[in-house]
């Protein structure tokens, strides 16, 4: 039996593992896909707004070519950390349920072959993030194959009519990249503007593209129906029909709350933030901790920069419980 199992192999889960490793505490990270799988799903040419030093975990320095690293550099850094630190992680192990045992927890997983494997631990750390569960538009046609909730690159959509829904960084970045890749781009946003709250590096480009009519922008608007060859948008009192081949719905993501609910972790009714001690990150259920983005519920206010700092506090609490401090 291990002292701790960490569910989630993103940067924040890796940070917890590093902190436990430094304390000499036996741990295992279970990740349902690849190491830092969320970052793997980011746009191929994305450059992080966070500087490289704010993405570091443990005492491993992150040196990038420029102050703000690329997606490729970030993935390479975390791979190197796992390899050089010989971290104890199993990828492609999807946790399907966690249950209490007489002296801890049983963690049931499906491996890459679809076979069930069970692991035991005295404590559980949930660091599952939110990126696997996109928010839905809730409109007819959203289940069509032309509708996607993740964006990686624009090359495939050259010469096609593409609508992007959303007004935050991911939507704006996708719209710009699609335009540069030769797509005919429409951007639909519920808000009045996309010029506020986005990365400064995107602001000049999106303003120029919208004001010059290169990207069709529909503010204070919402998609009402998606069909095979068009999308219907409500803009004020007007119903607009836009010819369309593909839709990227990039309106945000939310945590999978089923595991937390099943384990009896209390959630705030409005924010879905789990109940935890801010000094230790232990939840209202003894020996179950939360770390990283999942601690922000549906607020989307916790990022790698902050979540990577949760690991040391969790490790200190576990070490104290073990009588090491």
Number of helices: 8
Compute the number of strand runs: 15
Strand content: 15-25%
Give the name of the CATH architecture of the largest domain.
Answer: 3-Layer(bba) Sandwich
Number of domains: 2
SS class: alpha/beta
Return residue spans where pLDDT drops below 50 for at least 5 consecutive residues. none
Q: What is the CATH superfamily of the largest domain?
A: FAD/NAD(P)-binding domain
How far apart, in Å, are the first and last alpha carbons? 22 Å
CATH topology of the largest domain, which one?
FAD/NAD(P)-binding domain
CATH class of the largest domain: Alpha Beta
Biggest β-sheet description: 7 strands, mixed
State the assembly state of the protein chains.
Answer: single chain
The averaged pLDDT comes out at 95
- Taken in chain order, the helices and strands follow as EHEHHEEEEEEHEHEEEEEHEHH
């Amino acid at each position: 039996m291990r002292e701790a199992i960490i569910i989630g192999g993103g940067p924040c889960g890796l940070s917890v593992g590093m902190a436990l490793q430094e304390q000499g505490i036996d741990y295992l990270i279970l990740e349902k896909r690849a190491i830092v799988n969320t970052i793997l799903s980011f746009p191929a040419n994305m450059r992080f707004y966070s500087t490289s030093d704010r993405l570091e975990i443990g005492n491993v320095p992150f040196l990038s070519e420029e102050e703000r690293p690329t997606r490729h550099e970030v993935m390479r850094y975390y791979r190197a950390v796992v390899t050089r630190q010989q971290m104890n992680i199993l990828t492609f192990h999807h946790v399907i349920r966690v249950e209490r045992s007489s002296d801890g927890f049983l963690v049931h997983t499906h491996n890459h072959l679809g076979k069930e494997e069970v692991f035991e631990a005295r404590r559980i750390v949930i660091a599952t993030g939110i990126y696997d569960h996109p928010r839905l538009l809730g409109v007819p046609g959203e289940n069509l194959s032309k509708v996607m909730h993740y964006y990686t690159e624009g090359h495939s959509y050259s010469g096609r009519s593409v609508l992007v829904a959303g007004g935050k960084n991911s939507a704006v970045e996708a719209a710009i990249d699609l335009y540069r890749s030769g797509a005919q781009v429409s951007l639909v946003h519920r808000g009045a503007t996309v010029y506020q709250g986005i990365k400064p590096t995107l602001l000049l480009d999106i303003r120029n593209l919208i004001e010059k009519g290169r990207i069709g922008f529909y503010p204070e608007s919402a998609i009402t129906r998606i069909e095979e060859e068009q999308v219907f948008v409500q803009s004020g009192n007007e119903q607009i029909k836009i010819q369309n081949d593909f839709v990227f719905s990039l309106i945000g993501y939310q945590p999978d709350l089923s595991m937390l609910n099943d384990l009896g972790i209390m959630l705030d009714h409005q924010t879905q933030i789990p109940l935890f001690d801010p000094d230790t990150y232990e939840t209202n259920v003894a020996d179950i901790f939360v770390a990283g983005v999942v601690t922000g519920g549906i607020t989307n206010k916790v990022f790698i920069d902050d979540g990577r700092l949760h690991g040391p506090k969790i490790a200190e609490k576990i070490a104290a419980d073990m009588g090491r401090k």
